[in-house]
């Protein structure tokens, strides 16, 4: 049996449950946290001791909004052989794991279901990767100027059609349903403010997803789409760029729904010039300011569940894996501890996985990052690779 101890761990109280210890030795059995004990506790029958020398032991990080198929900007629409896709997507998944993300939620794959293959191979122990939560192909209403790439999306039209496609996605292995509610910031010809879906369609998705024991996530920038999604019980509002005061009041104090902002990617808007909503400098500057204001308002003035999402292509992620942290910290003024909670327990709650991950607690899955320094005091401790990453009790490095 895999039974070992991680010694001399500094713990962050807000990310730890069931113990008041600020330093501890943590016992791992197979893929579980078996004990959180005082430093120096003697455990019998252990195979190994890893002394982390007062580094911080945190729950593994969660990115609630990635697309493993976004290997580089150009791959959005490139026709890659389906058999290649899984290898490529594993490359992205592995990068995430090495940067401390032990769970990633893929918010839209293409129809060859490569992220499902990565998920299943990791689950079966064939590969080392993060836990992957999969949407499968997204559901996109056909609309003027909303270009449906048939490789990536199911084009939806009406309640009955939506019902069939949600069932289809779940049957083929989707863990949740991803829906498009508004136009995009970066897609040619799109207006992110425009609501592109009907309420009866959202209602149907939520109903069928709920009846199958799962939930719906929606791409929604504009306030009208966000509001319709909240009214109809969508669990996670992705981007939520222009969320209004009125909608925030509806979300106040709720634990069954929340938002997953993706603000770090706004630094990339210049890459998406031609034909996009942010085609010119004025519009770009104004848009970024507006998003910062709306998400800042959600954080500073409301009690709303906020998760962690990045939504960037792998090449941008590799350029700066910390852009989302830096943006939330420097541009939006989020506190260190709230950023850390968003990257762990808040996202675990939104993904309905808080019984399994998100805090250091006896019985939970042994997914950890060990950080040199104390990121609750200085967030810059997160701006480098973790000292160790542990997934399902297995030490990755
Ligand atoms: Zn996305």
From TrEMBL:
Classification lineage: Bacteria, Bacillati, Bacillota, Clostridia, Lachnospirales
Gene3D superfamilies hit by this protein: Metal-dependent hydrolases, Urease, subunit C, domain 1
Protein name: Amidohydrolase family protein
Chain ranges of the Amidohydrolase-related domain: 56-395
A Pfam family annotated for this UniProt entry: Amidohydro_1
Superkingdom assignment: Bacteria
């Amino acid at each position: 049996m895999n039974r070992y101890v991680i010694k001399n761990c500094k713990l962050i109280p807000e990310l730890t449950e069931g113990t008041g210890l600020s330093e501890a030795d943590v016992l791992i059995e197979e893929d579980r946290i078996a004990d959180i004990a005082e430093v120096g506790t003697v455990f019998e029958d252990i195979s190994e001791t890893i002394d982390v020398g007062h580094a911080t032991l945190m729950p593994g990080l969660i990115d609630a909004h990635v697309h493993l198929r976004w290997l580089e900007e150009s791959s959005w629409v490139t026709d890659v052989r389906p058999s290649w896709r899984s290898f490529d997507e594993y490359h992205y998944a592995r990068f995430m794991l090495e940067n401390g993300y032990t769970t990633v939620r893929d918010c839209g794959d293409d129809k060859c279901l490569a992220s499902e293959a990565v998920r299943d191979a990791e689950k079966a122990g064939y590969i080392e990767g993060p836990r992957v939560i999969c949407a499968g192909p997204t559901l996109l209403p056909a609309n003027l100027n909303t270009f449906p790439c048939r490789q990536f999306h199911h084009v939806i039209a009406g309640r009955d059609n939506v019902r069939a496609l949600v069932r289809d996605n779940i049957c083929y292995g989707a863990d949740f349903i991803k829906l498009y509610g508004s136009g995009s910031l970066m897609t040619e010809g799109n207006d992110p403010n425009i609501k592109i879906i009907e309420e009866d369609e959202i209602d149907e998705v939520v109903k069928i997803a709920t009846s199958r024991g799962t939930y719906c996530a929606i791409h929604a920038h504009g306030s009208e789409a966000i509001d319709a999604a909240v009214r109809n019980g969508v669990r996670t509002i992705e981007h939520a760029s222009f969320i209004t005061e009125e909608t925030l009041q509806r979300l106040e104090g709720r634990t069954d729904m929340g938002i997953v902002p993706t603000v770090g990617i706004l630094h990339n808007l210049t890459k998406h010039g031609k034909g996009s909503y942010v085609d010119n400098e004025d519009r770009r500057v104004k848009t970024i300011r507006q998003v910062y204001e709306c998400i800042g308002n959600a954080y500073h003035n409301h009690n709303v569940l906020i998760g962690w999402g990045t939504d960037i292509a792998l090449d941008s992620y590799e350029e700066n894996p910390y852009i989302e942290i830096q943006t939330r910290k420097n541009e939006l003024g989020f506190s260190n501890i709230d950023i850390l909670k968003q990257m762990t327990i808040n996202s675990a709650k939104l993904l309905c996985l808080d019984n399994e991950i998100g805090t250091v607690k006896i019985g939970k899955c042994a997914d950890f990052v060990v950080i040199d320094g104390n990121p609750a005091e200085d967030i810059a401790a997160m701006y480098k690779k973790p000292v160790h990453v542990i997934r399902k009790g297995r030490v990755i490095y």
